[in-house]
C-alpha cells in the first residue's frame, strides 16, 4: 500500500450563485476545508441534507472548479493533472434519459468496455445480481442502479467517490457491494469516500468517519472506531449519526431564534404578501369540498 495520501485538501472554500442569482448572491457551500485521507481508507461522510457532502465529492471528481484552495488526489491537482483511475458515482445517472432507452444490459456494458474487464465484470454481475438480458428501459430504479455500479466498478479504480448510490439497493445486494468495496481497499489499496444517509449494517465498513455541517467539517476524517475517550465512543454509526444530525438541527434553530440566520424551514408564522395572495387564490378555486 502506498504511503502517499490518496486525498489532500488545503484551505478549500467554494461558493456558487443560486439559479438566476447574481455574483453578489453567492452561497458558500464549503468553507475552509482541510484534511488528508490515507491510501486504502474507507471514509464515511455524515451530515444532513445541504451539509456540503455532494459538493465536496463533485470537487474531488474535478466536476466543480474551485475559487480558493488546493485539491490533490494521489499528488495530482484534480483540475490541472486529472488523476487516472478515479471513479465518481452519483444518483443523477439513473435519471438520465440516455440510460433509460431500449438497450440490452449486455450490450450496454460492452459499449463502455465491459469486454476489457470480463473477470471483474462477471464478479460484479454475481454480487449485484444482474441479468444480462434485462432491457434498460424496462427495469426498476434499483436494477438500473446495479447496472450503473457494475459499469463504474468493473475497471481497476484507485479512488471511488460514492454519493448516495446505494439508496435504491435491497439489503442483500448492498451488503455484497460493501464487502466487495472493503476487499478492494484491503487487497488492492484502493480508497473509498462514501456519502450516505443509510447507516444500518455499516459499523464494520469505514476506516474513518467525518461530520459535515453547513459546508464545514465539525469533525475531520477520524479513525473508526472512535477513541475510547470520545463522547461518542461505543455508539453505533446509526446512533452517532442521529446524535450529530439532531445537534446540527438544534444549533440551526437556536441561531434562527437569535437572528443569526433567517428562518426558512417549517411553517411560516408571518406570511409574505405573495403567500397570502396565493392562498386566497387557491381557496377561491378549491373544488375539493
TrEMBL record:
Biased composition (Basic and acidic residues): 275-289
Taxonomic superkingdom: Eukaryota
Any GO MF annotation of the entry: hydrolase activity
Entry keywords, A to Z: ATP-binding, Hydrolase, Nucleotide-binding
Region (Disordered): 255-289
Stored PROSITE patterns: ABC_TRANSPORTER_2
Keyword Iron-sulfur part of the UniProt annotation: no
InterPro entries: AAA+_ATPase, ABC_transporter-like_ATP-bd, P-loop_NTPase
Domain annotation ABC transporter: ranges: 7-239
Keyword ATP-binding among record annotations: yes
Family annotation (SUPFAM superfamilies): P-loop containing nucleoside triphosphate hydrolases (SSF52540)
PANTHER family according to UniProt: SKFA PEPTIDE EXPORT ATP-BINDING PROTEIN SKFE
Protein name stated in the entry: P-loop containing nucleoside triphosphate hydrolase protein
Source organism (scientific name): Lentinula lateritia
Classification lineage: Eukaryota, Fungi, Dikarya, Basidiomycota, Agaricomycotina
Amino acid at each position: 500500500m502506498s504511503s502517499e495520501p490518496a486525498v489532500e485538501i488545503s484551505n478549500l472554500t467554494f461558493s456558487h450563485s443560486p439559479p438566476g442569482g447574481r455574483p453578489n448572491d453567492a452561497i458558500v457551500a464549503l468553507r475552509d476545508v482541510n484534511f488528508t485521507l490515507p491510501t486504502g481508507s474507507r471514509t464515511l461522510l455524515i451530515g444532513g441534507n445541504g451539509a456540503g457532502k455532494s459538493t465536496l465529492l463533485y470537487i474531488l471528481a474535478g466536476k466543480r472548479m474551485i475559487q480558493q484552495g488546493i485539491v490533490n488526489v494521489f499528488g495530482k491537482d484534480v483540475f490541472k493533472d486529472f488523476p487516472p483511475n478515479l471513479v465518481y458515482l452519483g444518483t443523477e445517472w439513473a435519471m438520465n434519459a440516455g440510460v433509460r432507452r431500449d438497450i440490452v444490459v449486455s450490450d450496454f456494458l460492452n459499449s463502455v468496455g465491459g469486454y476489457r474487464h470480463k473477470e471483474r465484470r462477471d464478479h460484479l454481475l454475481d454480487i449485484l445480481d444482474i441479468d444480462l438480458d434485462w432491457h434498460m428501459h424496462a427495469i426498476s430504479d434499483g436494477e438500473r442502479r446495479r447496472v450503473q455500479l457494475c459499469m463504474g466498478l468493473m475497471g481497476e479504480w484507485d479512488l471511488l467517490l460514492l454519493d448516495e448510490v446505494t439508496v435504491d439497493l435491497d439489503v442483500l445486494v448492498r451488503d455484497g457491494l460493501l464487502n466487495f468495496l472493503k476487499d478492494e481497499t484491503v487487497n488492492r489499496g484502493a480508497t473509498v469516500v462514501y456519502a450516505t444517509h443509510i447507516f444500518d449494517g455499516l459499523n464494520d465498513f469505514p476506516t474513518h468517519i467525518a461530520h459535515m455541517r453547513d459546508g464545514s467539517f465539525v469533525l475531520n476524517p477520524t479513525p473508526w472506531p472512535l477513541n475510547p475517550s470520545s463522547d461518542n465512543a461505543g455508539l453505533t454509526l446509526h446512533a452517532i449519526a442521529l446524535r450529530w444530525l439532531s445537534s446540527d438541527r438544534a444549533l440551526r434553530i437556536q441561531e434562527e431564534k437569535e437572528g443569526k440566520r433567517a428562518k426558512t424551514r417549517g411553517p411560516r408564522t408571518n406570511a409574505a404578501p405573495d403567500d397570502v395572495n396565493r392562498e386566497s387564490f387557491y381557496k377561491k378555486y378549491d373544488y375539493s369540498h
